[in-house]
Write a structure and sequence with these properties.
The chain has 483 residues and is an alpha/beta fold. It has helices at 13-19, 71-83, 101-106, 143-157, 181-191, 215-223, 254-276, 284-332, 427-440, 447-479; strands spanning 22-25, 30-33, 37-41, 44-49, 58-64, 91-94, 111-116, 127-132, 164-165, 167-173, 202-207, 238-240, 281-282, 338-350, 354-356, 359-367, 372-378, 409-412, 414-426.
């Protein structure tokens, strides 16, 4: 973008930026909206100012906080600091768009990445990438927060996304004396996405500061047991910012506003100095953490299905015992006997899903041999979930009972669900089962023994699922910041 080249003749750097920016408020300071390019792809929104220089070092900062904490102003402050804007310039630039109420409701799940390029080292020798999560805490339930976590994972794994993080900023007001349950959940849930080494890269960014000690906010973070960076003395690393940079400079408040400007500029300088000596964390561990969490979730679902089958099998055994005794008694009296009993089976239950052309959008991946659903919310776009993450390097499923090969799996708009159905049992049925047990199975002397073996097999599978879950938990404890 032309505004970011050094100006020719007598034009200054800022005046060239002003020429292509939109004046949104006159006075002192004059407020301009920067000329930025916005792209939105599958919920991933990118706002870019300038042209990327692949030879220039980039710093990536992820900002977390509830609506109303001043994240937008903090992002604008980072941009103006990078541009080298000073008090005497009497200008202020904005990059964050102020949303209307309707926009806030409809766009709360957008994760926004601001890319700040081309300022030629005016203040910083690096370019900036700022990742904002504006939707955290905007609704009354946690569903939107889960959506944002998924969007963050997309940024971490996509080709043009974020693959390292220099800092995670926990944004809250300096006067906050406690963290809401939602904010504590936000900080901890995002921290759980990162590896154990990420703690040194997490900083408290305290807004609306008057320059005094932020005891309230630091105590609130400590009470909520939030993990973030500590200095050599064990004190929490934090930076304070005032939100008055764009306030009109009139009358007796000008001196106070000048102090607020200088204070925030000094804090920003300290923040950048700390970033310069803090090693960035790659997100390879983060991706492994997410995969471990997803596999753990599928293991838990599989265990829950096994528990349902165990209960159903127990009921069937109890009913079979009663029926066997009755039939045995009636056999002695040469009477036929019939009775309805419950029999467990697997049914296919439709789910929401579908495909577009030759690519799947949503569906579930199931094993036809084991009659088990291995991945309930599979978003793999290839037919039959060929590249679904449940398959290991050998092409075997890591979830279904027999660890079947990929070819035995299908991706469809249904899942297997354990159910029961009424079947009519008679003495002849019991006798037939009894003879089959004698003739066909050396280890079983009766139908009840066969059912008991099935029960033991289910219990063994449940135990294996618990062991697998424990392995995932143990791995997460060793690599994740929060478990």
């Amino acid at each position: 973008v032309e505004i970011f080249f050094l100006c020719r003749n007598s034009e200054t750097f800022l005046s060239s930026i002003i020429k292509t920016s939109q004046l949104i408020q006159s006075g002192s300071p004059k407020i301009y909206r920067l000329n930025a390019v916005t792209k939105i792809t599958e919920g991933l929104k990118t706002v870019t100012v300038g042209t990327k220089n692949v030879n220039r070092l980039n710093r990536t900062i992820l900002l977390l906080g509830e609506t109303g904490t001043g994240k937008s102003t903090l992002i604008d402050l980072l941009v103006n600091y990078a541009m080298g804007v000073k008090w005497g310039d009497e200008v202020w630039f904005k990059i964050v768009e102020e949303k209307t109420t309707s926009q806030s409701k409809s766009q709360t799940s957008d994760v926004i990445m601001y890319q700040i390029f081309g300022f030629g080292g005016k203040t910083l020798p690096v370019s900036l990438t700022l990742v904002d999560t504006p939707g955290y805490g905007d609704n009354r339930d946690g569903r939107n927060d889960d959506i944002i976590a998924e969007r963050l994972l997309k940024w971490f794994t996509s080709h043009g996304g974020v693959h390292k993080v220099d800092a995670v900023g926990l944004v809250l007001k300096a006067s906050d004396n406690r963290l809401s349950d939602r904010l504590g959940y936000v900080f901890n849930s995002v921290a759980s996405l990162f590896g154990a080494n990420m703690e040194k890269n997490i900083f408290a960014l305290l807004t609306h500061s008057d320059g005094g000690p932020p005891d309230n906010a630091l105590t609130a973070l400590a009470d909520a047991q939030i993990k973030y960076a500590k200095d050599e003395q064990g004190e929490p690393v934090h930076f304070m910012f005032n939100n008055r940079q764009s306030t009109p400079r009139t009358g007796r408040y000008t001196e106070a506003l000048k102090f607020a400007w200088d204070f925030s500029e000094d804090q920003m300088k300290r923040f950048m100095e700390v970033l310069n000596v803090t090693e960035a964390e790659t997100l390879r561990t983060t991706v492994e953490v997410i995969n471990q969490l997803n596999q753990l979730k599928e293991c838990i679902i599989n265990i829950q299905d096994k528990l349902k089958l165990i209960e159903l099998k127990k009921t069937q055994i109890d009913q079979e015992k009663v029926l066997y005794i009755k039939c045995e008694e009636k056999m002695k009296a040469n009477e036929n006997y019939e009775e309805d009993v419950d029999e467990p089976y697997k049914d296919k239950e439709p789910i929401e899903g579908g495909s577009w052309w030759f690519f799947w959008v949503k569906g579930a991946t199931s094993c036809r041999q084991c009659e088990e659903t291995c991945h309930h919310k599979c978003t793999c776009t290839f037919l039959n979930g060929y590249y679904c993450r449940i398959f290991d390097d050998r092409g075997h499923c890591t979830v279904c009972t027999n660890k079947c090969e990929r070819e035995h799996h299908v991706k469809e708009e249904w899942i297997y669900v354990p159910k029961t159905r009424k079947v009519r049992k008679t003495y002849e049925d019991i006798k037939k089962k009894y003879l089959e047990g004698l003739e066909g199975m050396e280890k079983h002397s009766s139908t009840l023994e066969q059912m008991q073996q099935e029960m033991e097999k289910l219990l063994e599978q449940e135990h294996e699922g618990l062991e697998k879950s424990l392995q995932h938990i143990t791995r997460l404890e060793s690599i994740a910041l929060n478990v």
